Amino acid sequence: MSSPFGDLVLRTDEARREFDSQPVLLDAVANGMCVERYRAFLLELYNIVWHFNPVTAVAASRMPDSLREVRYFLYQHMQEEMGHELWVLNDLEAVGVARSMAEAHRAGPFTLAMTGYNYWAAEHRHPASVLGMLYALEVVASVYGGAFSSAVRESLLLDGDVGISFISSHTTMDSEHIADLREVVNQVKEPAAMDAIIESAELNFHHFGRIFASLP
Description:
- The chain is mostly helical.
- The protein has a single domain, classed as Heme Oxygenase, Chain A (Up-down Bundle).
- It is built from eleven helices and no strands.
- The longest helix has 28 residues.
- It is globular, with a radius of gyration of 17 Å.
- The termini are far apart.
């Protein structure tokens, strides 16, 4: 009998494969990015990371007691992710984007759609939907983060982790988080909650892929 986490992986496989086939992503992993495209990517990433904990907080505040272990997991996860948007700001400064410009950046339509959906889903769909957001983002980071950060370092002649600190650090970190996420998803037995988690993962893969596709 399949586990809830196994169902999540299986039922979102098509969405993940669509993300995997994104030409801009594949080119970035193989060849890195020019500085203009990398700056554009980091500006969108900053907005995603900034909203990560607020979305998670909304979900935690609405989590029913039947899923209290999920709520406790979210509390811990928010603690671990606190301040990570500052890492993105540091990376932006390293590639020539002033902090004031980054903070004033207006996110693109797919970034707005992604963050807007995540807030809506946590408040109106089912608070467990946040686990789908976590799954999609952590899969992307753990699978592509290492190759992507190395390719960007080489293409932009960066020194060590300067300019890629957020991406490179989350490669290993999110691989570890996947194991924790598997454990907490397997505690979700309510069909409505699992449907929301799966929908969220699909939408996050979709919108993140469109963010890559829209980069200049």
